Amino acid sequence: MKKKELFWFIGTTILALILNTLIFGINGLNTDTTLDINIHDTYFIIPNYHFILLLAVLVFFGVYLVRTLRSNFKNLTANLIVMIATLLLILVLIGLDSILDAFITQTTSWSIYPPLSAGEVEQDIKPKENNLGILSSALFYTLIVLLMFLAFCGFKTGQNHKPNT
Questions:
Q1: What is the C-alpha separation between 90 and 85, in angstroms, rounded?
Q2: Which of 58-62, 67-71, 131-135, 148-152 has the lowest mean pLDDT?
Q3: In which band, very low, low, confident or very high, does the pLDDT at 104 lie, cut at 50, 70 and 90?
Q4: Is the separation of the CB atoms in 86 and 57 below 8 Å?
Q5: Is 146 within 8 Å of 86 (Cβ atoms)?
Q6: How far, in Å, are 90, 92, 139 from residue 95 at the CA level?
Q7: What is the pTM of this model?
Q8: Secondary structure string (H, E, C) spanning the chain
């Protein structure tokens, strides 16, 4: 790894730490701190390191995406880091999508509808559309775009860095 790449990596790490400190404060880096979220009747306690890792992945993805696109996929180290950050971002979005799917199945359960009257058929009652379904679809399409970008980035990296034979 060249010195320039090492400086970029250290600078990006410092930027991620500064952003995490600004958002979560100095105590946000402790392993004991949590974020409490109350959604409907469910109370979630999420450790802050999940958000710290998510923000760090987003910072690395953003910085190295710009570097990769500016160098036209000719910088091997930047390409590898953006591909690793893309993989980590895909994993995070898959986790978020599974959480959203759990909320969707919970909120569209048939048990929240009143009992059927004499003339109604169960097929006539349709679950309400909610914004969680739209968000889940948006996450799914974002995952597809990220997977296509990952394949394209791998193709361009292989094309630009063939071994000399």
A1: 9
A2: 131-135
A3: confident
A4: no
A5: yes
A6: 9, 5, 10
A7: 0.75
A8: CCHHHHHHHHHHHHHHHHHHHHHHCHHHHCCCCEEEEEECCEEEEEEHHHHHHHHHHHHHHHHHHHHHHHCCCCCHHHHHHHHHHHHHHHHHHHHHHHHHHHHHHHHCCHHHCCCCCCCCCHHHCCCCCCHHHHHHHHHHHHHHHHHHHHHHHHHHHHHHCCCCC
Task: Find all residues with CB under 8 Å of 24, minimum gap 6, and list them.
Answer: 33, 48, 51, 52
Rounded Cα distance, 16 and 82, in Å: 15
Compute and round to an integer the Cα radius of gyration of the chain.
22
Residue 51 near residue 24 (C-beta atoms within 8 A): yes
